[in-house]
Target: Tubulin-specific chaperone D
Amino acid sequence: MAEVDVEEDVKVQKGSLGYIKDIDGALSALFPSSSLALGSQACLKRHQNLEREESRAPRALVKIDEFQGWPQLLDPHLAKFVSRVRSALVQFVQHPKQVRNNAESNNSFSYLHAACKILYSLCKVRGYKVIVQLLSQEHDHELLEPILYALKIWTVSLDANDDPAWSDVFGWEERYILLLWLSQLMLAPHDLASIASLEFAYSPKDLETPMVLPEELPDIVRNLLMLSDTYISVSGKERESATLLLTRLVLRPDMQRLGLDKIVIDWARVIIINCISGDRETDYTLVGILSFFAGFAKRADDRTLTWAMQPILDCIQGLIMNFENPQADPTTKSAMVKKLSIKTYRTLAEKALRMKTVASDDLVNEAFDHFYSLLSDADTTVRLVASKAIGVITKSFDTQNKLYLLNSFIWEDFDSSFQWRPFMESLSSYQDLNTLERGLLETAQYADNTTWWHGTIMTIGHMVYQRSIPISWLHSSVIMLSAALRYNRVTPLGAASGSNVRDAACYGLWALSRKYSTKELYSVQDGGVIITPGSLVMIIATQLVQAACFDLVGNIRRGASAALQEFIGRHSDAVDSGIDLVQIVTYDAVASDKKATMQVALRVSRISFEPYWRTIVEGLLGWRGIQSHDENVRLRAAQSLGFVSVNTYAQTEETLFLLNGLLALIPEKEDAKRHGILNAVACVVKTRHQRTLDCENPDSSKDIKDILSEPSFQVAYVTGNPHAPDVWNSTASYTSPIPIKRLFYHAICNVIEAFCDATCCDMTIWTNHCRRPDDSEFDGFLDLANRAMGHSDPQVQAAATQAGRALLTLLPEESRGRILDRWITEIQKVKPEQRTSVRLAGFVQGLGAVFALFKHDQSAGNGLSWQDRIVQTLVDLTSNAHQTEIKCVALRSIRTGPLGTDVFQMSIFEAMVDCLNDYTNDSRLGDVGSEVRMEAISTATFALRTVHALRTKANRALRNMLIYRVCSLATESLDKVRFRAATCLQEIWNKLDLSNIASCPDVQGIIDTKTDEYFTTFLRISSSCPEGREILRGYVTSAGGTAAESLIATTRAALSNHIGDSYDKFSRVIHTLKNLIGPEASDRVRVPAMEVLGFVYDQNYDMAHRRNDFPNAVDANDPFSHSFLHSLFADTTAFHYRSTDARKLEAALCVYTALLSARDNAVRKAVLNKLCNMLGSLPVARIRNQIADILYMELSEEEGEGILGVNWGMSAKDQGMRKAVEGLRGTLGLHM
Model:
């Protein structure tokens, strides 16, 4: 189960009432309570809205499927739901011919299909046995023949009609539901001969069956047999309902009197014999017959089985012998065949034991041998059925036989595949590595036969559930179940197996809690294998706590939680602090692996030191924790161990000693386990040190330094080599040019950071056994950190950065500059075009991490301080000469370094502004500059929120420039940039002094960045501030250009609503847009600005007519004045001068179209002349056709005659094109 914050089934549980209401509403609309006769006016009126009605069925199906995790929530409403669908279904069954005649219109069949699909969904969620009982009513036997007749009519139609659409309107759901309904009607007490009527006649074809039937058999029975024979061999769900129909039919008393059961059994035997010999009709024939045998053996009474048992048994034994035949047909050895054979064999053996027949003992022994041989089958379904069969039949054994089977079969094989090692007795008893090696490593070495483990543990679980396990053998059962709860196999490629074994163990322990009393569990004696100070119940409880908190599979965590809840509920007095435990390890709390490891485990460890703290630590130290094959699991477990182990000094000390000893026992090639252990050490040291710093009254006599002063810790942790004699000399092996593995880099850097931060500048702990290191010896660790910084993995880079920072903390101030200069030189010696994130990201992060270690006046030479050099280097890395990844890393370093220490320089501001305007495009990746813009948004927001210099009046202009630029990005076309900018603005909006922006709206309530309200907010901001042009610079990219159509529609609608009837807003927007199309702007802004400008003019020309001075406006700034329109025309002409770019030409046409609608004749004539020139010169045929369309729509009917009948897509150099253009000029009165 994937990690999720809110589990789907929890959502269903909480929202079930709403789902029920939706289902009820959909069913009420589809199938109203009032009956509508087919063909009536009311029914036809409903069918006119069929398209709307049909959409309700899928919605109902989706809501029903949501209840698969909580089917019982449907129980109070099932009767009402089924009743609604049943009434419609009865109507269709009673009018089959009319349904067929209406098939061409797909009306009646659509409702029939919807009804059957809904019933099938209910069967799938709640089980067919529950639904079919609600489907049947008191006098339903009268529907037997109508259902048969409807199946005949519709089935014949399906076969006779060549149209493939028939298979869609009459699908398998209809056949499944109607056959299931027929099987329920077979329980009617009336004789079938008395139910038959003369109203329904059967043709000879309806009565054809492969069986030799008696003459006195009613035709209705023959028809039922024909249907069963037809559908018992199909691959769909109809086979299940047809099998049930045939079983109930032959077991009816009136049919048994006619000998139908014997006839059908003989017929089935012949089919199985033919299938074994290789002669079969379809692949599913054998499956259908075996399903019939299984149902027959289960439902038949003892009198019937006295004669039927042996024929069925012969068939099953013949198939079993065929399983071992390598030459046999694979169909006869499929998982489904094995499953049905086991079910039939189990039922026969169980009934033979109850009947106490002469051969019952031999039958049971043969059955047990067969079931046990299939416990290792490759198919999970076979193992599940075989294990359940053993559990059921052993229930009837006496104690002596049970012990014989358990010891001779299960325990013998289990013991041979399992090498015992004692479980963890007590963590506090591990005083040396030999004791630790005995108890802390894996409790057992398991065999590789995962399938055998799964089958055997499931068998133990079923035997426990049936109380087939004697009290004297419970101890061995718990041993097996506990071992299975820890079972895990990992292949060399990292693939894990064994989750099904652990799941089976959870089931077995859950069954143990239900079927055995507390007194019985207390009476179990320890066999010397499990060493524990508590009872058997406490052993089980602690094992389940570990599985619930740390298992890698969500279903197993929940299964262990459910078993634990059952244990505490039924044996509450035997579990320490059971009430507290059951409230913490809940079914929902352990659904998320992160929550289970980080929160649930921590709360459990605080219940008591013994046994729960030890249980949690043991789980974190094992394969589910820091020794897991999954790196994310190891890191999460290490972090959890850090929180768990710092409650007291004794816990921290004990945990570190355990980790120290465990590190010594890890084989040399187990890099993953060593990685987890070292990270655990780092987390424990970090957390304990932080706890000491946060504590108001720390215990001065006990500190993390007291533990770290032990030489064994220094050697084992800092070097990763527990046998190194000198912690500093051992670094020589790690400074060679041979690359060290990524896991080692990551772990060692984390340990170095933790140790250095914990010791700070107190170097007294390095005395005694280890001499104090000098600068040259520190270089060994610094060299390790430097090489890790150049690693390609981001996690290693981040860890190396912090390790380098921590190491510099231990150096005196005068020595730190030497290391920093080395990092800067490492960056500068690489050419800008070769600077990649893989090579330099770690060093760039390091500059930001160590910025605070240098004083602002600490000189680095050349008149610069070390802080100035860091800022200069970081700012240089944000220039356009560098790659996108490096720019992002440099911005993050600026944020953590200079800005994080409230250092602000003008060069940093300029770098942020440049990055906010980074629109670098890659031919393969597209807008790669968007990553830089998003990082710059975060950096600018951080600066606005924390840097004191930007909050002063002297720097208000700088602050406002950043705000306006972020607002512009909050309206641009790229969704992720727009969302990031809006999120950042919401964080800082109320913290900013916006007094200089009149009536500025609040953006904190805006969440959706694709709505009219969102864009209207920023239009209001642009109208209220003097830098509105900057905001519209981003807005136009959403309202035109290559933005999504839905976004264009939304932004343009917001712009129209914003302008409304206000001439001042219209004029302000027009002037801003005109400024955006100037030559100094980039085409990225000019093209969409042109399109938006044309749109705004087109939408607001009526505003000009309401002007009193129109058309004699003399103000040059008036958007409708001659001077303004002529200036706009000149700018547009210059915009696409000698350009063949289709996007630029189309944008220019938007403005030309708007200018044609102006009442200024001079401008209009100039535009027409320009368009004619473009018609005669542009090589782009698509643009010429658009120009022709524009001219035809804008000109009068007489002027437009010169446009019609001309192929404007011909070449511009064609003689015909020239004549057409000259003619058009003449018509318009234009001259060359």
